[in-house]
Amino acid sequence: MQANVIILLILTAILWGTTPILEKKGLETTSPIVGLVFRNLAVIICVIAAVFITGKTKEVLSTPPKTMLLFALTGIIAGFLAMLTYFGALKLGATSRIVPISATYPLVAALLGVLILGEQATLLRIFGTVLIIGGVWLVKVG
To answer: Measured between alpha carbons, how far is 56 from 48 in angstroms, rounded to an integer?
Structure first.
């Protein structure tokens, strides 16, 4: 893997690893739906600014309707419904238990990739899936 890809992935992990702490603190004084309002308003403002700064306005306006629908669905599923259930769990439980369990979504993606997209279920991927399940079990009993 290229060095710049690794750097981006490390930064992603740091950013994603930091946000549950901020979210947990924010949920001490508000409900999950209100937290989502402010989280998503900030995202909308940043995305709109990024579109203008990068000059991608034409590309946004010329995106095919099917592509728009697919991304809208992912926004509803991951950006709203999953975040609402995640914030609800985070408000009620320990961050150190909630985050690892919610982070098993690669397991779901891998299974759906095999079932829906016809991707290969190699021995290494199956072993990785077993490790994910084992990790979740360790977090649950710990």
So the answer is: 10
